[in-house]
Amino acid sequence: MTANISDIVVFDLEYTSWPGSLENNWSAPGEHQEVVQIGAVRLSVPGLTEQSTFNQLVRPHHNPILSDYFVHLTGITNEMIAAKGVSFDLALKSFLAFCDSATIASYGDDRAVLMENIELLGLSVQHPLLPFLNLVPWFADLGVDTTIVSSSGLPAHFGLNSSEKHHDALGDARAIAMALRHLASEEENLAKLIARA
After folding, report:
1. What single DSSP character describes residue 139?
2. Domain of 16?
3. At residue 28, what are phi and psi to the nearest 5 degrees?
4. Which of 168, 140, 171 is nearest to 155 (CA)?
């Protein structure tokens, strides 16, 4: 990332899960972190004002039927996927077009999940998903215990009011953006963010 950056796209993912998936790192037979929703907000720099949003449901390929656990966690149903879901390939192309030349950022390495899906489906992707910024070290440097504060919990951590739905990719991306704006209102913090990539 350079000092003349003009946009940051903050994105979040929801992906297939089952009871115990997080604890066993999706190592059970047949378990994959297949993307089910991509949500993102495009922010201008330096004010981090929301310019536009991206929100796409995705049909998982290897586990096309969502688990009851996932449905309860996210509110995304099999019926919603059947009605509005697209292939991961199409969702990724649309997402990359939305990102264009912006720096891509997430709370944790969600880029690795996208790459895992690309490899899982044997896709050929020209865009390297770069420049990419993992926001966790920046938040940690500013005193956030990122081991316990989730993306959706960031606004509450800073005493900010957020009506965004938890475990919704767009809602979580907006929650991250809200916390970013709060901290980056101090010019020094924004400079540290820009210097990270």
Report:
1. H
2. 7-194
3. -70, 155
4. 171
Which phi and psi angles does 117 have, rounded to 5°? Answer: -70, -40
Q: What is the CATH number of the domain that holds 141?
A: 3.30.420.10
Q: Note whether residue 2 is domain-resident.
A: no
The pLDDT tens digits for 145-174 are 999 999 999 999 999 998 889 999 999 999
- The answer, yes or no, to whether residue 4 has pLDDT greater than 50, is yes
Contact in structure between 17 and 44 (CB atoms under 8 Å): no
Q: How far is CA 119 from the centre of its chain?
A: 18
Domain assignment present for residue 1? The answer is no
Tell me the C-alpha distance between 88 and 117, whole Å: 8
Nearest-5° Cα angle at 70, 81 to 75: 60
Rounded to an integer, what distance in angstroms lies between the CA atom of residue 137 and that of residue 148? 14
The yes-or-no verdict on residue 107 having pLDDT over 70 is yes
Measure the CA–CA gap between 197 and 186, rounded to whole angstroms: 19
Measured CA to CA, the distance from residue 98 to residue 39 in angstroms comes to: 11
Residues 95, 56: contact at Cβ < 8 Å? yes
- pTM of the entire structure? 0.93
Please give the sequence-ordered ranges of beta strands (E in DSSP) within the chain, or none if there are none.
7-15, 35-44, 50-57, 103-106, 132-134
Which of 49, 153, 196 is closest to 144 using CA atoms?
Answer: 153
Q: Which of 63, 37, 55 is nearest to 121 (CA)?
A: 63
